[in-house]
Amino acid sequence: MKTLLQVKELAVSYFTYAGEVQAVRGVSFDVEKNQTVAIVGESGCGKTVTAKSIMGLIKKPGIVDENSQILFQGENLVRYTKKQWNNFCGKECGMIFQDALVSLNPTMKVGKQIIENLDNHEPSLSKEEKKARAVEILKLAGIADAEQCLEKYPHELSGGMRQRVMIGMALVTNPKLLIADEPTTALDVTIQAQIMELLKDLQNKLHMSIILITHDLGVVADIADFIVVMYAGKIVERGSCREIFYHASHPYTWALLKSVPRIDYNGQTLVTIEGSIPDMTNPPKGCAFCKRCPYAMHICKEHEPSKWDLGDGHEVSCWLMDERADREGVPFETGRRVGNE
Amino acid sequence: GGSSDSDGGSGGGSASTESTEAGAFTMAISYMPDSLQPDTASDDYTSMVRPIYDPLFLDTKDGIVYYLADSLEISDDGLTYKIHLNENANWSDGEPVTVQDILFSFDYAGLSSGGSSSYNTINGQPVQFNAVDDKTLEITLPEPYATYVTTLSNRVLIMPSHAFDNDPTKVDDSGYFNSTDMATSGAYTVSEINDDSIVYKARDDYYRGNPEVETIVLRNTGSGSSRQVAFENGEISYMRVTTKEELDKYSNSDEYNTYSITESRLNYLQVNPNGPNKSVLTDEGRQAIFLALNGQEIVDAAYGSDELATPANSLLTPDQVDYNPDCAGYTQDVEKAKELAESSGLSGTTLTYIYNADRANMEAVATVIQQQLAEIGVNLSIEGLDSTSFFQRFFALTYGSGQENTWDLGTNGWDSERGTSGGQAASYLKNSEAWGFSQETVDLAIQANATTDAEQSKTLWYQLQDQALGEYWEYPLTYTNYVMVSQKNVTGLDASPIVPEFADWLSIKVE
Amino acid sequence: MSDTIRKQAELEVKNLKKYYKIAKGKSLKAVDDVSFTIYQGETMGIVGESGCGKTTCGKTCIGILPKSGGEVYFRGKDVHAMSRKEKFIFTKDVQMIFQDPYASLDPHQKVYDIIAEGIQIHKLAKDKNEEQKRVFELLEMVGLTAEHASRNVHEFSGGQRQRIGIARALSVNPKFLFCDEPISALDVSIQAQIVNLLMKLQKEQGLTMLFIAHDLSVVKHISDKIGVMYLGKMVELSDSSQLYSNPLHPYTKALLTAVPIADPDISRKRQRIILEGDVPSPVNPPAGCRFSGRCKNCMEICKKEEPKMREVAEGHWTACHLYDSKNEEVYQHEV
Amino acid sequence: MWKYCLKKIVELAVVLLLISFFSFAVIYIAPGDVSSMYISQEMTEEQKAAVLEHLGMDKSMPEQYLGWLKQAIHGDFGISLANRTSVTPQILSRLPATLLLMGTALLLSIVLAIPLGLWSGYKKNSLVDNAISSLSYIGMSIPSFWLGMLLVIVFTAKLHLLPSSGMNTVGVNTPWDTFIHMIMPCITLSLGNLATFIRYIRSSTIGELGEEYVLTAQAKGTSGAKILFRHVLKNTLLPIITLIGMNLATLVCGSFIIESVFGWPGIGTFAMEAIGKRDYPIIMAYVMLSGFILVIGNFIADMLYAFADPRIKRGIDSANGR
Amino acid sequence: MEDKKIITEISFQRLEEKETEQVADYRHSIWKDIRKEVLSNKAALFSIIFLTVIIIAVLLAPLSPYDPYEIDISQKMQGMSAKHIFGTDDYGRDYLTRALYGGRVSLLVGFCSMFITVIIGTLIGVFSGYIGGKVDMILMRFTDIFLALPSMLLMIVLNAILQPGLVTLIFVLSLFSWAQVARITRAETMSVKERDYVIATKNLGAGSFRIAVKHIIPNILGPVVVAASLGVANAILMESSLSFLGLGVQIPVASWGSMLQSAQTHILDTPRLAILPGVLIMLTVLSFNLLGDVLRTAFEPKIVK
Ligand SMILES: Nc1ncnc2c1ncn2[C@@H]1O[C@H](COP(=O)(O)OP(=O)(O)OP(=O)(O)O)[C@@H](O)[C@H]1O
Ligand SMILES: Nc1ncnc2c1ncn2[C@@H]1O[C@H](COP(=O)(O)OP(=O)(O)OP(=O)(O)O)[C@@H](O)[C@H]1O
Ligand SMILES: [Mg+2]
Ligand SMILES: [Mg+2]
Q1: What is the C-alpha to C-alpha distance for residues B383 and B12, in angstroms, rounded to an integer?
Q2: Is the minimum CB–CB distance between A108 and chain D shorter than 8 Å?
Q3: ipTM surpasses 0.90
Q4: Could you say which residues form the signal peptide (chain C) (predicted)?
Q5: Domain CATH for C168
Q6: Could you give the number of structural domains in chain C?
Q7: Size of interface C-D (CB pairs under 8 A)
Q8: Whether the Cβ atoms of residue E231 and residue E102 lie closer than 8 Å to each other
């Protein structure tokens, strides 16, 4: 079986006193072995919640819908007990977070925090073996003086180092899947480049799958195999890396691609997306992007678009795919795929 | 001992709540004394050191009771006092009690009050001492002074001079009176000084006989209601009762014995001649105040029972030989009081009233007086003060504290000192500056106090009692009783003529 | 250079230094010897990694922070030696837009009060009516409506808040605008709105701008001229097209290749220079060239001597020993 | 680190100095003084002056203060005016009882507060949490002397379970006996602190549980209990050290009232009497002692905290250039 | 498909105009937010109701048919009855009436000393924090000393030394509590004055006064309100302690604390006398504490996205 993880119709809601926040509304995607899947979308669209669901980290008042399925090597994680989760997290799947400083326990030495992962999952190892493993993984993560690093506290490390420690900590048990939630957002471009290189490198060496979460399409351009674009708790488009970058078919993806100035192009005016994301306590009836979409049609307001499969796993949810749609001025990259249904 | 409740339920707990060893007499004290030096400060303190230090003699209404001294002879002119000490009187370390000890104690008193004490000075003139022999002392006064008997009796407690090589300057800071080694002259010796208790043990070489009670425990019981709780819990042998509710409760119960002993104490209301409102506290003004008061009501409201206190009719107490039981006192006349208040300009003013909050029932008295004066349009701003601040204000002139103009009315009490002399009353009536009495009254008081003839003394004092009241400076409020309740197994508490000192420790028994 | 002579210098920064005292006898050299000139109507961008001193530099330039050395002239007047009155007028001419739209608006004020504050302080309106008119005008100018004026700031999203911040800055008709990473706290989809708005306003109002960002693509998009800072030093200064087409300093080169490009083909093919290690602490900067520790072309001299800023090509300045030979005269003179 | 220590010690000395000056000033200004205990109406002016001179009260306030200070530095707080013996030994002899009570109360409140606070925070908004929180709120709001009164009524007067007051039954000098006597004062004294600590630990636990590093630990498969004890506990409890230092004040002041309610033979009751008697040397000594306990408590807490929390320790070291 | 049918009926025309509504359609101020939060909290609701009731009751105390001071020996120590709901005290005065009058004193002391404390503390805190530098250092050392003083003890000493009474009580209580408030407000001021919006205002040419009044004070109001609420609680507790030691208001006026003191003598026979004022103190203090805590959470900065 090549597929490592299948997320099917994942729905997560937070029940706050302001009402039910439907953070994730039916998200489905697959992660193959050794593959890097990027989840892209702007703040609040449900990326982190999706990732947390896979790790069983959704806490009250959040509730994962019972009908959701998260199949890891065929096993449905949604039904897991606490104990099963504890065995799964760290062992099968590691996770790193955006801000490494707050994600590390400030009063515990880095080494102890790394070794804790081994304590949890490989208790049979001796102390020395565990330490050796920690040193080994830190070296792999690009920390030269790994031994000394083990004895340090998080605040004694620089931002890049911390993120390397986080990566080492997640990978020390050789998990099959690594979830990286915006691992470089807090870092500078040069450090970001280092970390992304490192992830690529480690993937080659350790043969794991990666789910990479980011809001910047540029970051994933050279690492992702497959890209999932989320908007307001839903997937609006997904497809292989090339498909998304070169044959994007959803107005939101276009905007994402065009709204950031590119260093290699000159003088284009930026495409803007007016407005802001909808209130998730009361998601719109039709397409969630409708209000901000320059090509919105009446139908978009009323009905959720269904999925159009454009082949090779490229799927789009947009009424523009319908052949009846008013496509005047729509900048499709290739007409071929439109209305392929 | 112990409470009559038996609570076998919880082993450890009940054991500790029981009173101490059987046969022990436990007294509650409200603070731990700094030392057991027989230097007197307060009534509480006096009762604490009483078991271990005997006075020379006590002056009571029924005559003189001898302790360390076995005779006192006063010459007819009232100038020469001859004291003879008991041949057997001895210290607990075996040394005899001698005249040297008396002189030493007087010297120390003089030293600590900056030279002149009431022992060695009378009206500014020195007193002569002459040690006739080891056991006989002759004292020569510069002028006749009846109160000197009292001075020598109740409150002078003799210290062992031999412990200080006869040098009174060594007493302070010697720590002698904080140790169990101190020599005592009373029926007991000090056996333990603990953090919150002191234990006395009976002497077997006491010159007056052997006490029944082997052990006396002084136990600090804290403030407020805790003494009552401790008593009911059987932790202490007796306690004073100050409210009618308590009195009723205990006298109706057959688990306790109650005793009522006259305290020979006068509680009175004083008008301050130097107060901030002295301009309206004219003869008429003071009269208005005194006529507005109702002594019986004060007793009823503040004490609730005649057993605790009775209205006073004179500035002397029934325990004093020269007390006039028929003295008229004051009678309430609200109408007249109102008129006088109006005419004197008193009505509508606010007077500052102070009382000693450390004394039982005084707050209640203040509350009632406040009410009664409100009737004639006089407001009282009442301040309850702790003893020290109270005395600094009330006796501002004596203390030189400069606070004489901080109060208008005040209630205080004095121990009349019983017996033959005018006692405290005399010293008040003699002081016109502090207490307002006229010169005639002052002269009369000096005259009365100098008289050694019983008949003449009575006449003068009867006259003085009426005359003083007629000047409207001091309102005699109450004669209080010291009401005690003890555990059932304790007897003999009332055998002592003076409270709360239990003068005769030999008569107390604990079964 | 006849072009630059005709242009009027709006802001002249000469050897600006700003040290923070962090402990007794210790200082953090946040900005060390930085010089540049911004001409009227021009936008200058400053890029650099976090903590390299961009904000400090900008704030010192507009007098919000006191300087530690050097000079800053705004229209010929020394910014740090103004009288109270001059300073007051200066605050009308020079305004700032902040990085964090959440922290830069007083949560207890209504939008109206925030925007009207500058007008009130500088008495730019004759009466309430005029003030109101002006506030509404400003709101419209930044893409909000008059109806928003009565609302509280916490009802607005980040992008809208940033617009309010811009309106506040514009309320006093400034001539110079210092934008401190005005978009880095915003969502990708919103950033473009703000960038477009700023560019539009600059054109309409003839503003001079100092624009700070750590995102090179944005800076390139918006600026005429770019300075690259590293650890408190300006390492390269040039107009933007030249900087991107022909970066000189090794750091600039690395920085440019590190910028992600949203195009897998280009991104995967291009040669990236991945820098080793992290930015050293500005408290104990390395001796010599501050970049020496991470530089692939590091030479002996780099560790000993601090390179001086020199003009390598016309209008293209850099501080790097690699280019010493091309400018032998200067180099020899210095040694 | 040592530099930091030293700096703190200097600060501490300054604070103590100022406390002493302040209290001296208050007492100096206060109406009514001790001389009245020594001066009587019968004395001549010279005698009065001699007494004043003997007491050192003829000098100006700064002179008196300096004199006092010089002695105080040598541990000599003068002579009690009431009983004319040295103040220092008197205070010292009562100190153990107070320290025993305060120490036990502090210990009791810490020992109880930690598990209760953690539990309550961990089970946020559950029944247990609500119960513990309500109790701690009541504990904070109840006047301690009143609680003491109620306890005495119930446990001594009605149930006859515990002794009403004092520290020992006379003649019984067993630890058990002292323990029995300590129960009520201890409960009363510790309740306020207990409540404060519980509430603090609770909210701190909730806060820490919401921290991202907890999520990281969970992502490593660490179980709930392990997270609580390995990660959260230390971070929650570190600030408690400072809190304890700060709350010493409550203890010192609380012991003052509680000691007199329960007749505990400590310095509280002693000082209370001294206040009644206007025995200023004792009051001064007590103020200084309390101030000293407070300041030292805070100092120790600061130090412990700085040593225990790696973040602060490093911050201090780097500020000192190490 | 059923889906298709509906679709065909609906126009695929572009939407002509976009709704410009960009702002969430709820309008509220922070204060309203806080009100909502406070009112939605059961504990806070209880506190507010209790405090309202007690304050109204205390204000309406003169409506009681009984005189709180009039002694009537015949009515001494009456038990609870319809006539005297909480019975009478040892002078025959209606106890409930006295408790209400006592509440006036306790609350007055609580509120007054809180006001003084908060005003002095805030002024010093804001001044010190805003000016900074040497002034700050000196003021804060001064504050530190007040914090390090054994305050309860000095309160007792001072109260005993000064003429006891309402004014003294308020003065003494305020004297030893302002430092706490000053500390809090200083810290808040320090943080607020470094915030971007203050820098922005400064950069608009605003003077210190304007900044302090328009920006700093409104923004530190939250902690100040919290401190005020806890301050009242603390003052009432302190007052009761001092009154219990006999250092409070003077007779015939009573506060809850001094009522407790008087009740002490009768505690074994008539515990009722000690229960009522004790419970009143406890509930009032509890309410202020609860309110303070709820306000604290309500004022906590919320992430608004
Ligand atoms: N604990 C929570 N309680 C209530 N709502 C929550 C909670 N966590 C997340 N949400 C809501 O769920 C939605 C999705 O949040 P999520 O954190 O997944 O966004 P994201 O895509 O990761 O955004 P970002 O880029 O800011 O990290 C948001 O609307 C958020 O408000
Ligand atoms: N008030 C201050 N006191 C001490 N050091 C400071 C202060 N402000 C900034 N610094 C330090 O000065 C250096 C430069 O800071 P600055 O904020 O100017 O950097 P920046 O380039 O704007 O970074 P960023 O991109 O993170 O905003 C940093 O090392 C920072 O830690
Ligand atoms: Mg996220
Ligand atoms: Mg910055």
Answers
A1: 46
A2: yes
A3: no
A4: none
A5: 3.40.50.300
A6: 1
A7: 7
A8: no
